[in-house]
Amino acid sequence: MGDPTPFAAQPRPTQQDVARRAGVSRALVSLVMRGGDHVATATRDRVLKAADELGYRPNALARSLARRQSRAIGVLINDVSNPYFGGMYACLAREAERSGLDLLVAPGLRTPRSEAGLLDTLLEHQVAGLLLLSPTIRESSLAAYCSTSPTVVIGREVSVSGVDVVTIDEALGARLVVNHLAALGHERIAHITGGSDNRPALDRAAAYRQAMRDLGLTPDQVPGVFAPEGGRDGVRTLLQRGELPTAIFAANDLIAVGAIGALRSAGLRVPEDLSVVGYDDSQLASLDLVDLTSVHQPLERFGQLAVELLIERMAGRRQGSRTERIAPTLVVRSTSGPAPDRS
Question: What are the CA-CA distances from residue 210 to residues 167, 174, 216, 217, 223 (Å)?
């Protein structure tokens, strides 16, 4: 059996091809594709019929460059495996559609290096603005990228001139969790972090420590990452120490789910032996098999504000940076309960 014939990409039909098929000028084809006026109905129909027969699709990038404007917004997503970002993107997409914008998505891999390459790609596509979901890239690098494009950062506090921020009130989120658990009688509340190399995780951990101190409780922080293995490894660390806390405050829902799995594998019941609270209230938290108490982030509001701020900046209506901190709420489900009596 011989070697298979290599796939040869077929050239994409151009406006010139459509013009030949329809028997009109290329300029007239361009006018029809832009929805221009003063074209006879019969001629317009002939051009559209020729385009359909050839499979011609207008080049959105070329059209935007010709008009010196673009409807495309670049979206950088920190971690596509995290359901929180899926929910956030859906809200952004709905708001962008209502505003007549298109989204060009770049899925990140939770590393500054990969994000830098993706930002290069988005800017090469001449996007009109950037929406960055919890980027890990350093502020100095972020400032260089955003100096040429209107930018809104979502889910991370940054201090970059000309960049707007939409984020959660981390201090309030941590207080909601710690106060809820303290009201249930918990005093030994451990926090499994989201890592030491990204700003949202560090901000969340700092907010937890302050909330504990405000109630006269001793913080107990265990290193983790924003993934299920962070919760699994965090619980293993707690088990190896011997004396367990009575509750775990996980830095996100993925960590919480990993922690619950590890606790159950060790023969511990949730919440009878140990309560677990997550953060984000992602789609995962409300599943019947999970039913996780979690800090709710109003993603629809995030999407609305982020797109509004970006449109304002794209239109040149504002120069100074603006930060919007949105208040979270706590959704109580079955993974948090009264502190066990271990006397």
Answer: 19, 8, 10, 10, 17
